[in-house]
Amino acid sequence: MLFHPLKLKFHSHEKLEPNGELWEAQSWALRIVMKFGGTSLSDGKRIRNAAELVKRYKGQIEEIAVVASAMGGVTDDLIGAAERAKAGERAYVEGFLERLSKRHLDALEEAVSDPGLRGELAGNIERELSDLGRALIGVSYLSELTPRSRDYILSFGERLSTRILCGALRDLGMRAEYFTGFEAGIITDANFGEAAPIYELARERVKAVLEGRLRSGSIPVVTGFIGGTADGIVTTLGRGGSDYTATILGALLDADEVWLMTDVNGLMTADPKIVPSAKTIRRVSYSEAAEMAFFGAKSLHPRALEPVSEKGIPLRIKNTFDPDGEGTLITKEGGDRSDKVVKAVTLIKNVSLITVSGAGMVGAPGAAARIFKILGDNRINVLMISQSSSEYNISLVVPRASSKEAVAALRRDLQERGLVKEVISEDDVCVVAAVGAGMRGTPGVAARVFTAVARKGVNVRMIAQGSSELNISFVVGESDGATAVRAIHEEFSLGS
Length: 496
Description:
- The chain is an alpha/beta fold and about 500 residues long.
- The protein has helices at about 45-60, 75-85, 90-110, 115-140, 145-155, 155-170, 180-185, 200-215, 240-250, 285-295, 305-310, 365-375, 405-415, 445-455, 480-490, and strands at about 10-15, 20-25, 30-35, 65-70, 175-180, 220-225, 225-230, 235, 255-260, 285, 315-320, 330, 345-355, 385, 395-400, 420-435, 460-465, 470-475.
- A hairpin with a 5-residue loop joins β17 and β18.
């Protein structure tokens, strides 16, 4: 069956026939970067399925580069193992390595049928696990886990899964080559845990390593999440980093599209677990998608949009388990002619609302700057901000895991010095956001949002809206979050 993932962009070549008529010869010279997420690679059968999908697409697309995440849950397991190693629990580390080895060797058995190729890959996996074991044991002896060591340890999830996926492609008769992100040319800064690409260095390296291979029909299979400094020290790109790897490569290789192959059909009008009538959104703009990703939409990481949006490369989210589905296409304009001013409603849980108040802030220049500097110095991310016109208080939303640290830092630097009266935190809250470019310049959208919520008896604790008018976000009690989402979804008929 022929897939219809996009309207194929042909490279056109005009030629004048002897009779003077102009005809157009069209070729199928597309270049796609295709990323498979952890759920798509969670065991050997799914890895084999991903490889078979690549083979089917290769029949109509000349150039494909593949990016792979770690097998589902492995990154979290590696984080846990690193922490247990830091605590000196060497027996746990040994058991963890045995379980990790079994999981990947079992997956290899299911994904690759050729005994010779399977033996080669088993040797590669064993060497990777040996290197990982030495790193974990080293951490256990030192009782120290540095950001650099942590990145090195976390990199093994992708290194193991990508080798198996590459082997499955080879087992299906395709020419495929394995690369770590660094080997593929992704050069980053040394901000371990949240490394950023150095594009002027990475562009030349990626082109040199991958361009010729793509043109020859080979399929580079690249580890997601992983980069490296200019001198080869392993870095990671942060959570969701495999999406980021795919879009970085797409931008540097001038891809026609980047596909994120995941376990959902695309961006949804709401979480279907909250709103069963939620629908897949066919098309959104980069800016709308960024708002949705920031405010908790699954299957997309906010940082992943930057490389492709700057170059105008379409990004498509598709379901590995429903490959014929259209998915969501993300472009500059969005292109959806729907009359719905709101396209999606999202919910962020596990947050805290912190309020800093006191007469000392009224008319005091730099009060807000001081608050955000304190939080920034403590590496605490601020999700939302609201300030009363009286300047008596500033409210902000932070991840719940950072709440105690944030309150302690603010009290130490502000309240104990008499600069503010109090710093209080509320943990039983969540953030609801209505997103859509159609809200820009449309009167009455906020009134409809809050009227719909009020009809359900939900109290709004804090409101924020950016000048772009792409979203209206607000804080409600945690128990009211799902009710608020359903109320807005119904008000704007997003399930129809």
